[in-house]
Every structure is written in C-alpha cells, then in structure tokens.
Q: What sequence folds into this?
C-alpha cells in the first residue's frame, strides 16, 4: 500500500500534466466522487419520477422543502463527521438535537434580541454537551460509542424535562430567516445559502491546524501523538464543535417544524451516521469530508421523495433507507478497487 | 491498616478489571434492594423481587446476544426491530392458537438466526462496519414490520401469543416465575459456551486480537457469522418472552432494549472493545438497570429523570472500571 502511494507521488512529480493531476485527484477522492455520483443519480431519478407523476417540473417549493429537510440532517451529519474523522462515533447527536430543539421552542420570543439570545444559548448548550463527551473520551479514556450512548440517555431525559409535551413556539420571522426564501437574492431558499456557506466554511476549516490534527488522529493516533500533535485537545475540540453543529441541527429542526418536540431529534443519531457513511467518510477515521456528509444527507432526503413519487407504500420507508445504506456501502467496497487499479 | 483490610485488598487486586466490575454490579444490586426496602418494605418481598428479576430477564436475554457480539469487538444495533419483527411473526403466524405453536416457535427462532447470519455475512463478506450493517438491518426490519402489517392495522396483528407460550413465561413453579427459570437455564448454557467450549475460547481470542487469532488458525469469519447468528437467536427468544409476558406484540416494543442490552453488558464489566467480560457480569448489569429504575420509581422520580439517572450510572460504572490503559 505504501509503495503504491510513493509511486503515485513520484509519478505526479515527474509529469504534472492536467491529466495526471486529475487521475491523482480521482484516486484520492473515490468515496466523495462516488457519493456525488449517487446524488446525481438520485436527482435524475427524482426529476423523472416527478415529471411522470406531476406532469410539470418541480418548482421552488419542492426545491426549498428538499433542501430544508436536507439541512437538518446535514448539520447533524457535519457534527458527526468531525467525531468520525477521529475514529470515534457520537450517538448522542439525537439527544443534543432534542435538547436544543426543546430549548428553542420553549424559550424563543418574537423579537430579534430573543432570537439572537436563544441562538447563542443553543450554540453554548451544544458546545457544552459535546465538551462533556470529549472530556470523557479523551481524558476519561473511555470508548466513544459507550460514552455517547450514556450521554444520549441523559440528554433525552433533559429534553423531556425542558419540554414535557410537544409544542412550544417558534416565531414566524425566525422560520422565514432559516427555512424561508430570501427576496433580495431572487427568492432563493435561505437553506441553499446556508448549504453553500457550510461548504465554503468546510473548505476553510479543513485547512486549519485543528482539522489536520483530526485527520492525523484518525489515521494513526499514536503517530500523531509522537509527532507532538495535541491529540487530547483536538479530540475534545472535535466533540465540542460536533456538539455545536448538533445544536444548530436542533435549532434548524425547530425552525422548520415551527414548534418543538423533545423526541423528534432522536432519529437524527442514526440518520447522521447514515449520511456520513453515504458521504464516503470512513468510520475507521482519517478519511472523508463534511461535503461528502452533506451529499449523504441530500441523498437520504431524496430517497424519501423518490419513494413517495414512485408510489411505494410509505410504511416501507425505513426498509428502503436501511437497504440503501447497506447496498451503498457494499457498492463502495466493490467499486473502490476497480477505480484504484487504474493508477 | 487493619488486619481485615489487609486480607481483603490483595484478593480484590488479583481480580481483573472486568471481574471487579461484575463484583461491584452485584454489590450495587444489593445496596439498591436495601434502599428500596427501607423506603417501602414490600419492595423486598419475594413476589416483587421475582417480578423485577423477570423484567430483568428480558434485558438479560437480549444482552446475552449482545455479550457474544461485544466480546468479539462488534456491536448489534439491529436488536430493537429484529426483536419486534419476530414478536409480530409469533403472534400473526400463530393467531394465538396452541395448535400452531409447535411450528411457529421454531420458525421464529430460525428466522432470528437467519437475520443474524445476514448481519454477519454482510460484515464478513463486504467489510461493512458492524455499526452500519446492523443499523441498516434495523431499518430494514422496521420497514418490513410496518409494510407487511400495514402500519399494524392487519386483522391478525391483534392476535395474542399462544397460551402455551404465555404459560412458559408467566407460569409459576414453587413461587418462581417460569420465565425466570428459562433465563437461569439459558444463563448456564451461555456461561458454559463462553467458558468451556472452543467456540468460547475463539470468541475471546478474536476480541483480544483478531489478527493473532487468525494466525493461530481461528476461522475468524465463521466465528463472526456464528456470533451474529447467536445475537439474532437471542433477539428471537427475547421477542417470544416479551410477547408472552405482555400477551401481544406492539410496535416499538423492542426500542428500549438497544440501550439496555449494551448498558447491561458494559455495567457488567465487559470491554466494548471485545475480549474482556462474561455473561455473569451482563446478568448483574441487567438486574441492576431494572432494580435502579424500580427504586427511582418508588421515590416518585419522573421518567425523564430516570433516563438521566441511567445515563449517569453508566458513566460512573465506566469511570470506575471501564477506563483504558494510558497509551504511550
């Protein structure tokens, strides 16, 4: 494996033609490209089915609904990605979403000051929840899967204490801001703007020392430590920033639903992991990007629409989602050697 | 240092991490019974203890499969809906008739084994991480249950478990619930398999170091498939037992058992990384979870707070004996 790596590097140095560079990029990003391919295929299938059943092209409403649903999963999936990059896993994502979702619905008033205040509070709560996970994993030397399954139970309980019955209230202004359309930009859905901003944010973030350290930890924690990387701090950071994104997912979920529910976030633990896997992020750590996870989130959302327009019994949703998850992973294991043997 | 402590401490030190965990879990159970008994003496009456142990047996059965899987370093997240699907299969195929029970019960067990084998095959043949494979399987089973029963609106969905099956779990022998006796028999079998068979040795070998086990001639793939099949089998047994106890299958009946089965294994002192732990610890973990919640209920503590308490207890148990050695 290492010999082929170095060979590619020397080849790259020898002739840096555009073609060679392209081949190198493809070989390095097989999983991401695969998920983009699946996403494009899903979009095509969706469009065909939509036109066949509705006899017109999907409009702005369909576009923004799909994106809004993608964003909730996508935000949680970015948080999950940061943790998975270190080789960990965060099962408490759903619990953190529950808490922030309940908090926002219970406390937000219809004034800009309150919206800002609650948004900051949600960020703080998400960060705090992630920080606790991170401390327990890094300094407590405990396994991530079991730490976060315990904190999941804790946050689910806390969410029920905050909002015992579903309800609460999210001001319309806040919903319009996050999940509506922006007039000045030609009625583009604000979720599209957030989507693009998140991709740009990731492009910046992944070049920072923090993210490079996370990749290093995921590839070989001992080597990272031996090279003086602040492994412990970076791990705590990964869970903390992951918690912030989970918190944002809860806030976004509240905005889309215009009310709160202390249990509606729970499925996001599983969908965030599914999105990460579909996005080509390795669960063993060190490989993948949040952009892939966003693609994964979009794929998961589109599957539901495709099933709906294909007239599939909605009760079989979970069946197809589960089957698709397994088949996608099998496909990526089967396709990867084929694509990489060319180099 | 007193003479008593001097004799006790070395014995405790000789115990491994996971043995200390198991011991602590049993001590904690006794402490909980004392606390519950002080508040309300009827809490420690034999019939209440029998009921609590019967409730623990459902967690214990699911957790038996989870113990096997966790011992090789895997995890089975498909438990909730595999259990639920098999419970529904039991009631809809038997239609509550004793005359059908003789073939339905074996059928349910076999389907459980097959589902578990599919999990194992996916993990072994396609290198799918266990988390993803079993997560996907959970969704598949959930979809199948909802789809085939039309969202649980089918006429046969309300069938009861056959009276024979109900009797096997809720009957009493000398004041002991028969479900508890079933659990005891199964516990002995699991204990023997893990402790005294080559399969058991191989499971621990894989959990400690899969590559070393492979080089030593262990058929890692085969054992992995067997282990997941066992987990499917126990999900089936637990599904049957739960349906017999509650008379009917319901949607979502398996949901609490994912958290509880993993928690029971971990509280019992097993390492989530595999290779360390045993079923006696898991039994303690299962009983502990049930008794803890019962005590909290005695003190009128809300469901939300009980959930928080369960989470905190796991963290405390982990910090006490689940910490890994400091890496170089």
A:
């Amino acid at each position: 494996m290492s010999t082929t790596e170095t060979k590619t590097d020397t080849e790259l140095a020898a002739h840096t033609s555009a073609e060679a560079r392209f081949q190198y990029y493809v070989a390095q990003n097989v999983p991401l490209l695969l998920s983009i391919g699946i996403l494009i295929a899903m979009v095509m299938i969706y469009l065909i089915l939509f036109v066949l059943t509705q006899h017109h092209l999907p409009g702005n409403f369909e576009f923004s609904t799909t994106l809004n649903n993608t964003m909730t999963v996508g935000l949680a999936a970015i948080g999950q990605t940061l943790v998975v990059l270190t080789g960990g896993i965060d099962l408490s994502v759903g619990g953190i979403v529950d808490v922030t979702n309940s908090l926002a619905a219970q406390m937000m008033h219809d004034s800009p000051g309150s919206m800002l205040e609650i948004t900051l509070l949600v960020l703080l709560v998400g960060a705090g929840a992630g920080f606790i996970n991170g401390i327990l994993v890094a300094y407590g030397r405990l396994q991530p899967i079991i730490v976060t399954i315990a904190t999941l139970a804790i946050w689910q309980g806390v969410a029920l204490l905050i909002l015992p019955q579903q309800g609460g209230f999210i001001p319309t202004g806040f919903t319009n801001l996050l999940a509506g359309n922006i007039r000045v930009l030609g009625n583009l859905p604000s979720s599209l703007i957030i989507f693009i901003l998140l991709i740009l944010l990731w492009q910046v973030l992944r070049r920072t020392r923090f993210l490079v350290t996370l990749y290093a930890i995921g590839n070989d924690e001992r080597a990272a430590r031996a090279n003086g990387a602040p492994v412990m701090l970076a791990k705590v950071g990964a869970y903390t920033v992951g918690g912030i994104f989970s918190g944002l997912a809860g806030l976004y979920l509240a905005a889309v639903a215009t009310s709160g529910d202390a249990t509606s976030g729970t499925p996001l633990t599983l969908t965030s992991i599914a999105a990460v896997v579909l996005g080509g992020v390795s669960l063993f750590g060190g490989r993948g990007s949040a952009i892939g996870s966003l693609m994964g989130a979009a794929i998961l959302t589109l599957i539901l629409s495709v099933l709906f327009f294909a007239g599939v019994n909605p009760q079989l949703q979970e069946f197809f989602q589960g089957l698709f998850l397994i088949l996608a992973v099998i496909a990526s294991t089967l396709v990867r050697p084929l694509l990489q043997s060319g180099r | 240092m007193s003479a008593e402590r001097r004799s006790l401490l070395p014995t405790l030190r000789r115990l491994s991490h996971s043995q200390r965990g198991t011991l602590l879990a049993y001590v904690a159970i006794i402490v909980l019974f004392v606390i519950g008994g002080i508040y309300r003496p009827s809490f420690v009456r034999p019939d209440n203890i029998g009921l609590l142990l019967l409730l623990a047996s459902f967690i214990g059965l699911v957790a038996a499969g989870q113990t096997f899987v966790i011992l090789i370093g895997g995890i089975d997240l498909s438990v909730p809906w595999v259990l639920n699907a098999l419970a529904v299969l039991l009631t809809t195929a038997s239609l509550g008739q004793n005359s059908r029970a003789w073939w339905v019960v074996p059928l349910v067990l076999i389907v459980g084994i097959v589902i578990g084998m599919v999990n194992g095959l996916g993990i072994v043949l396609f290198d799918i991480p266990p988390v993803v494979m079993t997560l996907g399987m959970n969704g598949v089973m959930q979809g199948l249950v909802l789809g085939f029963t039309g969202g649980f609106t089918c006429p046969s969905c309300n069938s009861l478990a056959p009276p024979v099956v109900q009797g096997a779990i809720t009957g009493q022998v000398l004041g002991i619930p028969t479900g508890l006796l079933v659990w005891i028999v199964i516990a002995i079998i699991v204990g023997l398999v893990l402790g005294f068979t080559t399969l058991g040795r191989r499971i621990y070998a894989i959990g400690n170091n899969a590559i070393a086990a492979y080089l030593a001639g262990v058929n890692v793939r085969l054992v992995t498939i067997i282990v997941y099949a066992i987990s499917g089998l126990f999900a089936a047994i637990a599904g049957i037992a739960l349906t017999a106890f509650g008379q009917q299958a319901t949607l979502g009946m398996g949901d609490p058992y994912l958290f509880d089965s993993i928690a029971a294994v971990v509280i019992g002192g097993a390492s989530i990384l595999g290779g360390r732990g045993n079923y006696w610890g898991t039994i303690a973990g299962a009983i502990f979870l049930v008794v803890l919640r019962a005590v909290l209920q005695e003190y009128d503590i809300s469901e939300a707070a009980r959930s928080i308490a369960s989470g905190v207890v796991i963290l405390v148990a982990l910090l006490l004996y689940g910490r890994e050695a400091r890496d170089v």
